[in-house]
Design a protein that fits this description.
mainly beta, two-stranded antiparallel sheet, two-stranded antiparallel ribbon
Amino acid sequence: GLVVQTLNPSTFTPGSDFRQRSTLVPLTLPTIKDAWIVVEAGVLLSQTGPYRAGTPWSKVQKGMYPIAITNPIFVDVNGGGYVPPGL
């Protein structure tokens, strides 16, 4: 339930399509407790450029911004079966 890292997509490696970018993200996970990871991608709410107020995007979408969120990725740290954090 915490934001542990924010990445800048301009530092990612471009793919074969202008919409693709990739990077490797090292994660530090707890060594004694199971965990879950969710990745969210989208523009900053303070975004400038095509999403700022008064632009064609803003007029058509009325404050809606592109966003993507993964399903949780459950990490069983010790191989003993996943136990949700906090339980």
